[in-house]
Design goal:
Elements (H helix, E strand, L loop, with lengths): L17 E4 L4 H27 L13 H4 L12 E5 L5 H8 L3 E6 L2 H11 L5 E3 L12 E7 L9 H11 E12 L27 E4 L5 E5 L4 H10 L3 E6 L16 H4 L5 E7 L11
Parallel strand pairs: 2-3, 2-5, 3-4, 5-6
Antiparallel strand pairs: 1-7, 6-10, 7-8, 9-10
Helix pairs in contact: 1-4, 5-6
Bound molecules: S-adenosylmethionine (SAM).
The site of S-adenosylmethionine (SAM) has 20 residues, from helix 1.
InterPro entries: Methyltransf_11 (IPR013216), Methyltransf_Superfamily (IPR050508), SAM-dependent_MTases_sf (IPR029063)
GO biological process, one term: methylation
Protein name: Methyltransferase domain-containing protein
Length: 287
């Protein structure tokens, strides 16, 4: 097994797979990640479920909580809003949204992740098993969309997903998504001092791939620079309203894979993009 240099997802390479950097397209990435999340959902929920909470909305390992951040807008304005959560995992964020009076739908590629959602609330939050690249909803179905490390770090065609999200949002709708901060790709994914020295090029967009003995991808992450992400947001039809880089708070002493208080005090670990679909001009057709 090669060194786990590129993975930003915070857990180790499967014993029987090898880590490399190579191209991986939409279909291969999606198939690999569905399998990986199905196999690893149980461990993920055991490892991170307490930190995530059953009904909290946490944007990333720093612990930035939507109740304080209000990136989707004022908490009191969420009531009655139709909200799509993409890459929802066990739907913790959706459950918090429902508690505020919103009408969330939690979408994920992984059947096993969604089974954890069912385990937690017995099916109170509507769940949809689908790929973020082909959202099974009519145009203009939602007021808001959100994604806490769901889908965007894992997909080859980021613009395609953004266009899909724009399509299902109503004019004036907001999409907020968090991803691994792009600067992290230049560093080893290690929580200790070894994670503080640049080990690769920030500009190398070659996907991080774990593959089996036959060379089939079993896990894929896609890297984009900050500039790439901004261009993707614009190409997807959104206006970038804010880019939030949460600072590591003093209260959080918990490591999450390569995210740690040590590194979090020195370099950003998460980037949160706040995007809006402009309201259509009066009388406009909507696209
Ligand atoms: C790091 S987890 C985040 C889950 C949840 N937001 C949380 O904070 O625990 C990433 C999630 O994205 C999902 N995912 C990965 N690729 C996806 C895709 N193409 N479409 C939809 N979901 C995807 C995975 O199945 C996984 O549940």
């Amino acid at each position: 097994m090669e060194a786990d240099q590129g993975r930003q997802g915070g857990s180790s390479v499967d014993d029987e797979s090898t880590a490399t950097r190579r191209d991986a397209g939409t279909t291969e990435s999606s198939r690999a990640n569905r399998g990986w999340w199905d196999r690893n959902a149980d461990d993920y929920q055991v490892e991170h479920g307490t930190f995530l909470g059953d009904d909290r909305f946490v944007w990333g390992p720093e612990g930035l909580d939507e109740v304080e951040a209000e990136l989707l807008g004022p908490v009191e304005a969420l009531a009655g809003k139709d909200v799509l959560e993409i890459g929802a995992g066990a739907a913790q964020c959706s459950r918090w949204l429902a508690a505020q009076g919103a009408r969330p739908v939690a979408l994920d590629l992984s059947h096993r992740q969604l089974q954890h959602a069912m385990r937690i609330d017995g099916g109170k939050v509507p769940l949809v098993e689908a790929d973020a690249g082909a959202l099974p909803f009519k145009d203009a179905s939602f007021d808001l969309a959100c994604s806490a490390y769901g889908a965007l770090p894992f997909i080859a065609d980021s613009v395609g997903v953004l266009r899909e999200v724009r399509r299902v949002l109503r004019p004036g709708g907001r999409f907020v998504f968090s991803v691994t901060h792009p600067i992290r790709w230049a560093f080893p994914d290690e929580p200790g001092p070894e994670g503080l020295s640049v080990s690769g090029s920030y500009f190398d967009r070659t996907p991080y791939v774990e593959q089996d003995e036959e060379g089939r991808a079993v896990y894929v992450e896609h890297h984009r620079t900050v500039g790439d992400r901004v261009r993707d947001v614009v190409a997807g039809g959104f206006r970038l309203v804010d880019l939030v880089e949460p600072q590591w708070p003093a209260w959080n002493t918990q490591e999450w894979g390569g995210w740690s208080p040590l590194r979090g005090n020195l370099i950003p670990g998460t980037a949160i993009f706040v995007c809006e679909r402009d309201a259509d001009p009066a009388g406009g057709a909507g696209d």
